[in-house]
Amino acid sequence: MRLIWAATHYPPAHMGGSAESIRLQAEALAQTGDSVTVVTPQWDRTAKAEETVGGVAVRRFWPGANCPGGRMPGEWTFLRPRWHWRLLRALLRAGPADLYHAQDRRVLLATWLVARLHRRPCVLTLRDVGLLCPIAICLHRDPTRIPGDCGQGKLWRECTPAYRPGASWRLRVRLAIRYAWLAFERRVARRYDAVTAVSLGLERVYRTAWRGVPWAGPTPSPVSDPSGAVS
Amino acid sequence: MGWPHAVARLRPIGGGVVTVLFVGKPSRGKGWPELCRAMAWIAQSKPSIRFIQIGPAPATAPSNLKALGPGEPSYVSVWMLSADVVVVPSRTCDALPRVALEAQARGKPVIATRVGGLPEIVEDGVTGRLIPPGDWQALRDALLVLAEDPALRHRWGQAARQRVQERFGATRTTAMLRGVYAGVRAPPTMNDP
Fold first, then answer.
1. What are the strands, taking DSSP E only, across chain A?
2. What is the biggest distance separating any 2 CA atoms in chain B, rounded to whole angstroms?
3. What is the C-alpha to C-alpha distance for residues A195 and B4, in angstroms, rounded to an integer?
């Protein structure tokens, strides 16, 4: 099966839990006979634009922001049209696949568009609660559920002041815009053929606040070889 | 000094010194305030327990903490092998923390909070200890119990290694992902009947 994965982070850029998990899973699939191509941003210009590592073809595209040395790009980067446009172009260039897999929420729009353009199925994996709320401060009080009255108004009135006491209007507006964008992305995510979370615990949190989603059960990432590296 | 030498200097611990490892950003979401309170209490009563933190440097650190700064995976791996206990005291929904997974794969008992995917990794009383989020006293007590009982650490570590290989081995996780792929069908095309 030819698979195209889209991921916001892939090693060596932004060494962290999710990047390492995606690498391990891609390499495990490649070792068992699947053809896996990972389309990911070239956050560090010193990283190769194209390479094959551990049997996985990695295609990097210039995202319009240079973040060398493991510096994480700001969330605002992923709201800009140029981010989605450049990812879309890179996915189209990677060619048609049997299945498209968005490895995190930030790549879900372009991945869905390309999958539908090629009339291929698409899968989304959620790795954090970021698709529900830009701050999700409610989970500090109860880490198992998002309140039923979660919404733009609650974010404006209660959550933002709790998140940052004396929050400026500028911050409130920025968070409100991000919340609105997430609501749009959730609508797109519902159109995926399958949505998975990396753990049952995360899926349960999503289920408390987000209905009508084609959940396909958790898909945890594999553990690395204990004699090897770890993130 | 390169890290292998640093580890070599740390390793001949002897004398009942117990090393506790925390990997991550020292933030509220990662449970850093609780860990700080537990560390401060332990510094007074149990100086034989020392703490290592890998990640962005904290603003303030108790006397029994050594903050090493951010490190690459191989660096973390070596420190993980040298540690006796690994703590993941997250307060928010940590989906599936790699630190807990990898620590257990290396035969280390993990003290973690009951949030997100952590209960799926750590089996309470079998491979580690699950504590309520935000409870620094429970964290302190769990640390003290493990620090005083090397046999328990060894037993939980061995059970952890076996469990994590069974549940999170590449064969099983790949099969789960393939199951998802098999369950989705291509949308109908114009040529389909």
1. 2-6, 35-41, 50-53, 56-61, 99-102, 122-126, 194-197
2. 76
3. 42
Instruction: For tokens 């059960």, name the residue.
Output: A217
Residue partners of A187: CB distance under 8 A and separation at least 6: none
A203 interfaces chain B, CB cutoff of 8 Å: no
**Beta strand A56-61 with A35-41: parallel, antiparallel or unpaired?**
parallel
CB contact under 8 A, B77 and A1: no
How many CA atoms lie within 13 Å of A147's alpha carbon, on the beta-carbon side? 14
How many C-beta atoms lie closer than 10 Å to residue B102's C-beta? 28
| Nearest-10 Cα torsion for A46, A52, A55, A58 | 70
The structure tokens 């064969």 sit at B171
Beta bridge partners of A124: A102, A195
Angle value at C-alpha B41, between B35 and B47, nearest 5 degrees: 105
Give yes or no for a contact between B112 and B128, defined as CB atoms under 8 angstroms apart.
Answer: yes
Q: Do B121 and B54 contact (CB within 8 A), yes or no?
A: no
Interface check A121 vs B, CB under 8 A: yes
Name the phi and psi angles at B91, rounded to 5. -105, -30
Q: What is the pLDDT of residues A24-80, one digit of tens each?
A: 999 999 999 999 999 999 998 888 999 999 999 999 999 987 787 667 788 888 999
d(C-alpha A95, C-alpha A100), whole Å: 11
Residues 46-75 in A contacting B (C-alpha not used; CB under 8 Å): 70
Separation of alpha carbons A157 and A162, rounded Å: 9
CATH hierarchy code of domain B17-183: 3.40.50.2000
Show me where the domains of chain B are located.
17-183
Say whether B173 and A231 touch across the interface (CB within 8 A).
no
User: What are the tens digits of pLDDT across the range A176-223?
Assistant: 999 999 999 999 999 999 999 999 999 999 998 888 899 999 999 998
The tens digit of pLDDT for each residue in B153-179 reads 999 999 999 999 999 999 999 999 999
Answer whether residue A136 shows pLDDT above 90.
Answer: no
Q: Which amino acid is at B156?
A: W
| Residue B99 amino acid letter | V
Omega before A12 within 30 of 0, i.e. cis? yes
Other C-beta atoms closer than 10 Å to the C-beta of A194 total 21
